[in-house]
Amino acid sequence: MSKKSLKSQKVCSKPLADKLERKIETLLAKMTLAEKIGQMTLFTAMWAETGPTIDRNFLQYVREGRCGSIFNAYTAEYTRSLQKVAVEETRLGIPLLFGFDVIHGHRSIFPIPLGEACSWDLELMKRSARIAATEAAAEGIHWTFAPMVDIARDPRWGRVAEGAGEDVWLGCRIAEARVRGFQGEDLTADDTVLACAKHFAAYGGAEAGRDYNIVDVSERTLAEVYLPPFKACVDANVRTFMPAFNEIAGMPCTASRTLLTETLRQKWGFTGMVVTDYTAINELIPHGVAADLTQAGQLAIEAGVDMDMQGGVYFTQLEALVNAGKVLPAAIDEGVRRVLRVKIELGLFDDPYRYCCEKREKSRVLSPEHKAAAQKAAEKSMVLLKNEDDTLPFAKNLRSLAVIGPLAESQLELLGNWYGAGDGNQVVSVAAALREKFGKSVNITTIKGCEVDDEDDSQLKAAVTAAKKADAVLLVLGEYGNMSGEAACRVDIDLPGLQNRLAEEVTAAARGKPVAAVLFNGRPLAISRLAKAVPAILEAWFPGTMGGQAIAEMLFGDTSPSGRLVMSFPRHIGQIPIYYTAKNTGRPISSDKYTSKYLDCPNTPLFAFGHGLTYTTFSYGPLRLSAAEMPMNGEITVSITVTNTGNRAGEEVVQLYLRDLIACVTRPLKELKGFKKISLEPGAAAEVKFTITAAELTFVGPDLEPLIEPGEFEVMIGGSSSVADGQRFTLLPK
Ligand code: NOJ
Fold this sequence. Notes:
The chain contains 23 helices and 27 strands. It is of the alpha/beta class. The chain folds into 3 domains: 3-361, Glycoside hydrolase, family 3, N-terminal domain (TIM Barrel, Alpha-Beta Barrel), CATH 3.20.20.300; 381-575, Rossmann fold, CATH 3.40.50.1700; 618-731, Immunoglobulins (Immunoglobulin-like), CATH 2.60.40.10. The strands form 7 sheets. A 6-stranded mixed sheet has the order 11-16-15-14-12-13, sandwiched between helices. A 5-stranded parallel sheet has the order 4-3-2-1-10. A 5-stranded mixed sheet has the order 19-27-26-21-22. Helix 2 packs across helix 15 and helix 7 (122-138) runs antiparallel to helix 16. The longest helix is centred in the first third of the chain and has 17 residues, at 14-30. The chain binds 1-deoxynojirimycin. 1-deoxynojirimycin binds at residues 50-51, 101, 145, 198, 277-278, 486.
C-alpha cells in the first residue's frame, strides 16, 4: 500500500500501518500457494440460503487451510466452533472472516433500506446500521454485505427495496451514513463490522427491471448517476466492494478491469478488498466471456477480484493458472494481502474470538434500546401519501374499527426481504398492535377479505359486512415480503390479487366513515386505482420488528408521519423508468401535439420524489438570495421562511433543488442539492438557510470529469420535487 493511499483512507497512523504491512508480509512469506488461494475463497455455511448451493464441504476446506472466510453463519457459539477449526487445526492458524447479509438489522429488524431512506434522517440511518452491526458483531459476524448503493429508477426491479431510491445526491449521503454506521470509528471495536459497497456498478439499471439482466448505459449516465454513491463509500472509507452480477455495455462487472482496478483502485484510491457476488465468476461462462472456469478465474483475477464468493473457481482453478504461468504469483499475493489486511484491521489476529461472545449476544441482541430504535425508524420511514379530509389520524373515541386486508394479522411479512436473523414471532401484527393499544375500549374486528395474490373472492362479502358495521375501516394491503428483493421482479406493480377490488368494495360500503389504507411493500407501486378508491394511504414499506406498534401509534395521532418518498410512484407502469431529474428534451411537454408526452397518461408521477403529507400543513414564504451573482470561488445563501399553518405539530423536509439553465451538456430540470428536516409547533415559523458553493454547481463535463461553468442557475425550495417556482442567480466567470 502506498503512503498516499494509506493517508487518504485514514486507516491508521503511519507506524501502525507499517506494522500492519510487515505483519502481512511475514505471513505471506510463510504461506503455500494453496493456503494463499484459501484466503481468496469464501464459502457459505448455509444458515441462510442466498443463492444456489454448489459445495457443502466448507468445514473440511477450512480444516485444510483452503477456505479463509465463511458467510451465512452466525451466533457466538457456532462461529466460535468454526473459528476454532481455523485457528487451532490449520498450519498457520489464520482466523476466518465471517460475512452475512445484515441489510436492515440483524435480529432487531429495521425498515427495509428503501423505507428507511424515506426518513431523510441520516443520523437515524447511521444509528440503525450501528445497531445492526452491534447485534451482528455480538453473534460472530465481522462483515456485512451492505450497504447496497445502487441508484434505482425502475420499480419493477425487486432490489429497489435494498437501496436508497432514485436520487444521486441523497443516495451519496445515505451511502456514507450507512458505511459509517456499520464500520463505526474503529474497526477493532467489538461492535463494528466491515461494510461492503455493492453492487458495483449500475445493477439498478437492469434492462426492463428484470434482475441480473444486462445494463446498457452511456458513460455519462454511469458517471453522473450510478458511480457517485460508490465513490462516496470509498470516501467514507468502506473496506470492501462487491462487483455487480450484470454486464455494462458488454462487459460483466466481475471481469471488468476498468471498473475494479482503473476506476476503483487507481482513480479513487480504494485500498480494501473486492469480493465477488454469489458465484459471479462462474457466471462469466453463461455471460459468454469465458469458455470454462479456468478462463473465468483468470478474467476475474486480472480484473482485480480478491475473493471468490461460493463459486469455488479460485479454489479449483488458481493453482493451475499460476503453474501454467497464466496468473502471476504477484497477483495472488496482492489479493491475499488485501484479505489479510482487513482481517488485521478487525483485530482478528489479536483475538480471533473477539466477535463471538455469548455475554454480548445476550445483552445486545434485541435489547429494549434496539427495539425502541427500530420502532422510531419505522415511524420515521412511513410516508402519508394521501389524506383527504384529514381522514387520518383516526379519532381516539371510535367504538369499533374493522381491520381488513390480507396483511392485517401478518407478522413475518412485516420484516420484508433480507431480514438477517430476524424472527417473525417477534413482530406484532397491525391488528394485534391495535388490540394491544386499545384493549376492550375499541371493538376491533379483523378479516382478510382476500389473500395477497390470488383470485379467490369468497371472503369479500364478509369484509364488506364488517366495514358496514364498524365506525372506521383500516385496510392493510400490499405485497408479500418475498415479492421484492433479489430475483423478485414484477411486471405489474399494482396491488396484486383482488386487493383493489377489496378496497373499492369496502370503501363503498363504509361511505361516510373514515377509511384508510396501510401499505406494506418493497417498491413504489402503481396504485392509481387504490388512490382513487380510498381517501387516505399510509405507506409503511416493510417496517421491521416494531412496525405494528409504530403503525398503531401513527394511525391514532400519537405520532405524526414525517417520511418523504425517495422514489417516484408512477401513475402507470408504462411511465417507467420515471424519476424527477428528467431532462427538458428538445420538445418539452406542452399542449402542442409534437411534444414529449403520452396520449393516455400525464408525464408526472402519481406521487413525486420528495412527497409526503403530515397531520398539519406548511406554507413557504418567498425565497431570498443573498446576492444575484456568485463569484466562482464564493458562495451564495438562500433562505426561506416555513410556517406550520395547521393545528398540530409536524416535521417538514425542506428540499433545495438546483437547475443549471444552459451548459455545455444537457442538465436535468432540477436536482436535489440539500435538505433540512425541521419540526414546528402549530403556528410556529422557522427560517431555513442553505449555502450554495461550487460543489453544488459542479457537474460531469464532456470529458466525464467534474466541471463548473459560469452562467445562470435556478434555485427552488419546497416540500417535494414538484416545486415549480424558483429564483435565478448568475455564477460569474473566474
Ligand atoms: C447475492 C446478492 O446479489 C448479494 O447482494 C448478496 O450479498 C449475496 N448474494 C450474498 O448473499
